[in-house]
Amino acid sequence: MTVSVSIPGRGGLRLDHLVLDVNGTLTNRGLLLDGVSERLGRLRDALEIRLVSADTFGTLEAIAERLEVAAVRASGGEDKLRVLDELGRPACVVIGNGANDALVLEAAAVSFVVLGPEGASAAALRTADVVCASATDALDLLLDPQALSATLRP
User: Fold this and answer.
1) Alpha-carbon dihedral of residues 154, 104, 134, 118, nearest 10 degrees?
2) Within 13 Å and on the Cβ side, how many CA atoms surround 38?
3) C-alpha angle with apex 48: 43 to 50, nearest 5 degrees?
4) Residues 101, 37: Cα–Cα separation, whole Å
């Protein structure tokens, strides 16, 4: 299970884990965004997917069940960082939008911040490698490593 991305001038990435924030990233006020489930279904064969969320709207377990992925409740950025450390930072891709995602966005091998319907924190914007208009745009880049390579090219 791996997504390989070759980035000219930066080398190759072998990504094994996708760590996703939920609120504001995959959902709008607790409701799963259209297109997320289908894309994660396509990525499930290539990446181990884990939701990591403070669960503001109390929907983490139901969303994880619907998406058929593992979920971890994390009260803040340090909790999220511990999950990343358990998985191995060099093998992780992270998608998030909040201030509590900034530590993992900075620590991951590659990271995306999304400017979804709940916005994105300035801290998350400063630390991410890629800025996307939505979670589906970020997931589409993971599904197309050549396009991701073009975005990350120095």
Assistant:
1) -140
2) 6
3) 100
4) 21
Cα 151–chain centre separation:
16
In percent, the amount of the chain with pLDDT more than 90 equals 88
Q: What is the rounded end-to-end Cα distance, in angstroms, of the chain?
A: 27
């619907």: which residue's tokens? 66
Instruction: Tokens for 97, please give them.
Output: 């939008």
Both tokens of 44, joined, read 């499930």
pLDDT at 2: 87
The SS3 of residue 149 is: helix
Cα–Cα distance, 59 to 83 (Å, whole number): 20
> 154 with 133: CB under 8 angstroms?
no
Only one residue has tokens 């064969």, namely 45
The whole-angstrom separation of Cα 111 and Cα 138 is 9
The two tokens of residue 112 are 């995306």
Instruction: Pick the closest to residue 105 from 118, 123, 119 (CA basis).
Output: 123
Assessment of whether the complete model's pTM goes beyond 0.90: yes
